Amino acid sequence: MKRSILLVLAMSAICSFARTTAAAGKAKIGLSFSDFATERWARERDEMTKLLTDAGFDVISQEANQDPKLQNDQIKNMATQGAKVIIVVAQDGDAAAAAVEEVAKKGVKVIAYDRLIKSPKIAAYVSFDNVDVGRNQAKGVLAVKNSGNFVLLGGSPTDNNAHLFRAGQMEVLNPLIKSGKIKVVADQWVENWDPANAKKLMENILTSTGKKFDAVVASNDGTALGALEAMKTAGLAGKVPISGQDATEAGCNSIARGELTVTILKDTRQLTPLATELAGKLVKGEKDLGLKPYKLAELTGDKKFSGTVPCKFLQVFQVTKDNVKKLVVDSGFQPYEGVYKDIPNPPAK
Fold it and tell me: Which tens digits make up the pLDDT trace of 196-241?
C-alpha cells in the first residue's frame, strides 16, 4: 500500500514537471530589430530564432525599418500577443524606453541587445565593451598616421553605442588634439548608420577640405565603406587610413585590398547565445543571471538618468591586414571566399 502511494506521488510529480516544462516550452519570446539593412542583424535574428526554437519557445520576430514609433508599436503588440520576454535591438534608445516601461508594467521582461535602451526598467543589457571599440578604432588609425588633419564620422546619433564609440575614440585622440599634433577638420554623424549618407557626407568633406585630410575615424564598416566610395573617386582610398567596426565580410575584404585600415571584431557568436540564454532564464523566473549593475548615468554619459541596469559586456578585438585571416577567417566568423574575393595571391586556406 505504502509503495503504491509513493508510486502515485512520484507519477504525480513527474506529470507536474512535464506540465511545467510544457508551459515553459510554449512561452513566447519576441525579437524586435531596428532594421535588417545592417548586415549583422538578419544573421543574428536567424541565430536567435534557431536557439530559442530548439529550446522549445515560440518566437515572434519583427523589423521596424528604422522607424522608432513602429518599433514601439511592435514591442507593445508582442506583449499583447503574450511574449514573456522581448529581445530588442533599439532604433532609438530614448524612444524605445517608453514601450519598455509600458510592457514592464504587464510583467514583460526586455533585454536590450547590443544597443542600450535608456530605462532602468530593462531586465538586462548585453553588449560589447563599446568604449573599447572606440579606443581600438582610434589606435588602429594612429598606428598608421598619428598627426595631421583628422575626419570623424560618428554613427547614428540616436544609437547610444555611437556615443560610447566616440567617447573611446576621443579618450585616445584628445591628448594629441590638445598637443596640436592632430586637428579635427570635420566631425559628422551618420544618420541610421547608412553607407549612402556616409558617402554624401564624405563628398561634402572632400569639397570643404580641398581633399586635405590625413585620416578618418569612422565608427563602423558600413559608414567607412560608404566614405571610401567617395574617397576612391578622389584617389584617397588606400592612402588615407580609415577605421570601421563589426568585421563584416565586405569590411574584411576591404582590409585585404588595403583600403579599410582596421575593423573591430565583436564576436556575435558569443552575444547571441548569451541573450537567448538570459531570455530563457527570465521566462523561468530565475534570479541568478550573472550580470553586473551599472548606473544608467554612467552608460549614457548623462547625469539626468537615474537607476541601474543589469549588464554584461564582452571583449572586442582589433582586426588589421596582418591578423584578419587568423581572427576572422580561421575562426569561422567570415568565409575565406568572401574575405579574399578578387584578391591577388591570397594566403593559403
Answer: 999 999 999 999 999 999 999 999 999 999 999 999 999 999 999 9
Q: What is the side-by-side strand order in the sheet with 292-295?
A: 58-63, 28-33, 83-89, 109-113, 124-128, 308-314, 292-295
Shared domain for 272 and 124, answered yes or no, is yes
- How many CB atoms sit inside 10 A of residue 14's CB? 10
Q: How many CB atoms lie within 10 A of CB 211?
A: 13
- The confidence score (pLDDT) of residue 35 equals 95
* Percent of the chain scoring above 90 in pLDDT: 91
Is 51 a member of any domain? yes
The string of pLDDT tens digits covering residues 100-139 is 999 999 999 999 999 999 999 999 999 999 999 999 999 9
Give Cα 135 to chain centroid, integer Å. 16
Determine the pLDDT at residue 39.
79
Do 109 and 20 reside in the same domain of the chain? yes
8 Å CB contact between 176 and 146: yes
Write down the mean pLDDT value for the chain: 93
- Torsion-angle region of residue 124: left (phi > 0), alpha (psi -120 to 50) or beta? beta
Residues 57 and 113 in one domain: yes
Range of the domain at 199: 130-245
> How many separate domains does the chain show?
2
Widest Cα–Cα separation across the chain: 96
Secondary structure of 270-298 in HEC code, one letter for each residue: HHHHHHHHHHHHHHCCCCCCCCEEEEHHH
| The residue to which cell 511574449 is assigned | 83
Residues 272/54, Cβ–Cβ less than 8 Å: no
